[in-house]
Amino acid sequence: MKIATFNINGVNSRLENLLRWLHEARPDVACLQEIKVAQNAFPIEAIRQAGYGAIWRGQGRHHGVAILARGADPVETRRALPGDPADTEARYIEAAVNGVLVASIYLPNGNPQPGPKFVYKLAWFERLIAHAGELFASGLPVVLAGDYNVVPTDADIYSTRSWKDNALLQPEPRAAYARMLEQGWADALRSRHPDEPIWTFWSYLRNRWERDAGFRIDHLLLSAGIADRLEDAGVDRRTRGEENASDHAPAWITLR
Question: Member of which family (predicted)?
């Protein structure tokens, strides 16, 4: 079983890129973030023609998450992260697919920091930690996939020099990510690639793709009930080099 996460950065504007990747990579489950469409504007017919069922939560030109399943319809279990009924941003969706509970996560960016956006990021992270703890304690096989907007350590970025004030690298979100791992979650990419640089994001600015000046903010966390089934994990870097590409590349795992 192959599960991937891909911040598509606009599903309609990059639909051709997405369909090409689905055809080539053939993930069984694809978690998308930043679909950036209203609920009724998601390209479901094109997705179905590509052989995928889908659930999604849209939000106009901002945010938005989706879960695609090859040859199946994901069984939706949640459309929002619990803990704050007043939070209407489309950042979390969860479904059961072929015996695995999968979440697509778009954690707040938090910039500029300090400020209200950074406060929201940390509060959202606390809610995620609480919900993740409940999922982990359930004993179910769970994959929490998405754009966490956190560079976990200095080993996960080409250089910290230009990013030292960025919300992605601040101590508080890094500590929150570490606390999630302490619940028992396995960071799949790091598990398979413990020592090598492995990037999932390259900014459009300053030729960072051409210079391979990237970092890792897209993660797939595995519960104890599924971590021992991990066979491989990687990043489809070539997708980032295509014309009209997202600034993220898909990250993926394969499970026995």
Answer: Belongs to the DNA repair enzymes AP/ExoA family.
